[in-house]
Each structure stands twice: as structure tokens, then as C-alpha cells.
Design brief:
- The complex is a heterodimer of chains A (306) and B (102).
- With 306 residues, chain A is of the alpha+beta class.
- Chain A has helices at 9-23, 33-47, 50-59, 96-102, 132-137, 222-227, 283-296, and strands at residues 124-130, 139-150, 156-167, 176-179, 195-201, 208-210, 213-220, 229-235, 238-244, 253-256, 269-275.
- Chain A is built from 7 helices and 11 strands.
- The longest helix of chain A is centred in the first third of the chain and has 15 residues, at 9-23.
- Helix content of chain B is 60%, strand content 13%.
- The termini of chain B are far apart.
- Strand 3 of chain A pairs parallel with strand 1 of chain B, so a sheet runs across the interface.
């Protein structure tokens, strides 16, 4: 947490609160926010408790003041968590390093529950990245998830599993898919918990998504906007002829109704025209530009008064 | 579990209705806590009497975020409710910026 080795408990709490607010996965948009948040939470979990802090100090006497606390990599994406917050109640969300240090005492009791005990399993939540095209056509995607599970000894283990999941046509960014019975098995006669997958789209090279609408830039030639033209444009469903009205300009917005993400109602595609000047890379091209300059007497800065 | 099976789920925000008990289980918090969210105006039930309260699908996300803000950052409910609204606004603005910067 960037603290000196002799930091006071108050300093530690302040530093943790700052980092937690900065990197909380619900708040931060930084790509590795979740890992950083867990890192800070782990460090705080150790340092806030004087006994644990002493144990930590003993275990790693070579740690220099201000040295960073490194959790193992790759424990932020595709990680399922329960309804206990990203901090994880009792350590299920913590890294192996942390568990080695302080054990898994929070879970040892589970195996001793009698057969009479019935309880529904816990629900799990995970974030999943899919392509925009999947929302257009629907798709089946195999999704890798890591989740903490109890083994026969009642110990928490991180297990990997793969699920083939149908991505429903028309799903929007941030919506969740509920998979019944894919959470933790219930105890006794209890039902299995559910798995919730929160869907996010991979960044797209052409489209920005807003609800079911898509926004895109379309490069056009000066004469296409000046004279009007029918040009080819892309949609996730394939190419399409787009009619550009005469007198359009750079920044003009055209709407392709009903060409966005399908649903009720189906979204639209908003095309913003972006005029590209052809390069003057030949004598002919230069002559054309010179002719325009002399014939058109055009001052694009007329509105600025210069 | 067979790897060939394809799981089909439902879109929570569109086709789902939760009971108080389901919402409680999905968030890992007691039903009493969910009720305090209703009192705070964070989520709105449909239906009149408390034993038949139902919640629309979009409530789940709000409940989960508030629960995490509370447990991870030590926010109280009023603070979490405010943060939630501001976060939604920031999200919309960020998206707007991404479109404009295209």
C-alpha cells in the first residue's frame, strides 16, 4: 500500500480507504482495478490486525519499507464471487499466498454439518466479455470460470471449469444472464444456487454501443457529401447501401433505423460522416485543388470572422 | 458435468422477477437488509403487501452494487444510494465521451 514499515494503524486505515475507493471494481474503470483492489484489501486484512501484522513482519523480514505487496497474477478475470463483496467474507476471495499465511479457518467447519441440515446453495456472480456480434445474432460461447469450492476435507480450493453458455440475441451491455442451478450445490436437500453472468462487450474497432443503439464514424469523400451519393457502409449484419443527402458535411449524423441490436425495440445505428480530403499526391490532383481554390472562393473560417 | 451441454439462461433485466427471498439469496444478505434498501428508495417493489413483494430484474444489479459498496468501502445505505446514482451517471457520461471521441 506504499506505506512505511512503521506506519501507524491510522495511516494504514487511511491508505487502505483511499486505495479501496480508487480501485473498487464498481467504481474504477481501470482494467486491473479488481486485482489492485484485492491486493489492497489483502494488505489491509493483514495490517489492520496487530497480531497478523506481527506474523507478517516475522515471515518476511527482508521486505523493505514501502515495498509492494504482490499477489499472484491472473486472479481477477473470470473469477466468480459470492454475495460477500469483492473483499470476500472469510477469505474465499483471497489469494493462495494469503491463505498460506493465515489459513482457511473460516471454512473448516463446513464439513461437519450433519445430513439433517438443508440449505440452498449460494448464488455466484461473474463478469463475462463477449463480442457485440454475439448480441446481434445470438451465440454459444464457452466461458472459463474460476471459483472457490469445498473439497471433501471441507477446504476451499480454486477450481477451473468451463461452461457453454448461450448468449441471447438482443442482450445489452451490463445485463445479466441467470443460469439456474449453476451456483454452489445446496446442503442436504437444499437447491443449488444460481450463477449470474454480467455481460460486457469487448471494445469494437468500429462501433460504440449505447443501449441497443450503435454509433459509428463513416469516412466519406468531399464530393459524396457535396453532391449526395449512395455509399457502402458496414453493419454487424453485413454491408448496406447508405444514401448521403446532397449538402451533408463532416459531422452530419444519419440514422439507420432498426439496424442496431435486435430487441423490443430494436436499436438504431447512428452514422457520423467524416469527410476525408484526398491527398494531393499527383500533378493532376494538385491542379484540381488549385482549380477549386480559385473557382470556389471558399473560406471555411468565415464564421470566425478571419 | 458434460462439456457438451449448452446452458441457456434468461436475461435478468428483461424477463426476470425476483421475490424478496430470491433477491436476498442472490446478494447473500438477509431479507431485512433488502427491506432497508426499499425504505431508502434504492429499489422499488411491485405489488402491495410485503409477503407478495416482487422486484424487477434490474433491481438485482443495484442490490449487489450497494451490498459491495457497503461491505468493501464501509458506506452507509444513504451514501451507497448516492454513490450508485452518481456511478450510473458517470457510466452514461463515459459512454457519451467514448462516442464523441470516436
Amino acid at each position: 500500500m506504499g506505506l512505511a514499515r512503521d506506519a501507524s494503524q491510522d495511516d494504514i486505515k487511511r491508505a487502505h480507504r483511499k486505495l479501496a475507493r480508487k480501485y473498487h471494481p464498481d467504481v474504477s474503470k481501470e482494467p486491473d482495478a479488481e486485482a489492485k483492489f484485492k491486493e489492497a484489501s489483502e494488505a489491509y486484512e493483514v495490517l489492520k490486525d496487530p497480531e497478523k501484522r506481527a506474523a507478517y513482519d516475522r515471515i518476511d523480514p527482508n521486505l523493505k519499507a514501502g515495498q509492494e505487496f504482490h499477489p499472484p497474477p491472473n486472479w481477477d478475470s473470470g473469477f466468480e464471487f459470492r454475495g460477500g463483496g469483492f473483499t470476500g467474507a472469510g477469505g474465499s476471495g483471497f489469494s493462495d499466498f494469503f491463505e498460506e499465511l493465515f489459513g482457511q479457518q473460516g471454512f473448516r467447519g463446513h464439513a461437519t454439518y450433519g445430513a439433517q441440515f438443508n440449505a440452498p446453495g449460494q448464488d455466484h456472480h461473474a463478469k463475462v466479455l463477449v463480442d457485440l456480434e454475439d448480441a446481434f445474432h445470438g451465440a454459444t460461447r464457452s466461458i472459463n470460470l474460476q471459483s472457490p469450492e469445498l473439497d471433501e476435507q471441507g477446504q476451499m480450493r480454486i477450481t477451473q471449469h468451463t461452461l457453454n453458455v448461450k448468449i441471447p440475441k438482443g442482450i445489452k451491455e451490463g445485463q445479466q444472464i441467470r443460469l439456474k442451478g449453476q451456483g454452489t450445490p445446496g446442503m442436504g436437500q437444499g437447491m443449488k444456487g444460481d450463477l449470474y453472468l454480467e455481460i460486457h462487450f469487448n471494445p469494437h474497432s468500429i462501433y460504440r454501443v449505447e443501449g441497443r443503439d450503435l454509433h459509428m464514424q463513416l469516412p466519406v469523400a468531399p464530393w459524396e457529401v457535396a453532391l449526395g451519393a449512395t455509399v457502402k457502409t458496414l453493419t454487424p449484419d453485413g454491408t448496406l447501401d447508405l444514401k448521403i443527402p446532397a449538402g451533408a458535411n463532416s459531422g452530419s449524423k444519419l440514422r439507420l433505423k432498426g439496424r442496431g441490436i435486435p430487441g423490443k425495440p430494436t436499436g438504431d445505428i447512428y452514422v457520423t460522416l467524416s469527410v476525408v480530403a484526398p491527398p494531393a499526391n499527383s500533378e493532376q490532383a494538385k491542379a484540381l485543388y488549385k482549380e477549386m481554390a480559385s473557382t470556389l472562393a471558399f473560406n471555411p473560417r468565415a464564421k470566425m470572422g478571419v | 458435468m458434460s462439456k457438451q451441454t449448452v446452458l441457456t439462461g434468461i436475461i435478468v433485466e428483461e424477463n426476470s422477477i425476483f421475490t424478496l427471498a430470491e433477491l436476498s439469496r442472490a446478494s447473500g444478505k438477509p431479507a431485512e437488509w433488502i427491506l432497508t434498501l426499499v425504505e431508502e428508495g434504492i429499489i422499488e417493489p411491485v405489488g402491495d403487501d410485503q409477503s407478495h413483494w416482487q422486484f424487477r430484474g434490474h433491481c438485482l444489479r443495484r442490490v449487489c452494487i450497494v451490498q459491495r459498496l457497503e461491505s468493501d468501502l464501509g458506506l452507509n445505505l444513504a451514501g451507497a444510494a448516492l454513490a450508485l446514482e452518481l456511478l450510473e451517471e458517470v457510466e452514461a457520461l463515459r459512454n457519451r465521451i467514448a462516442i464523441l471521441e470516436q
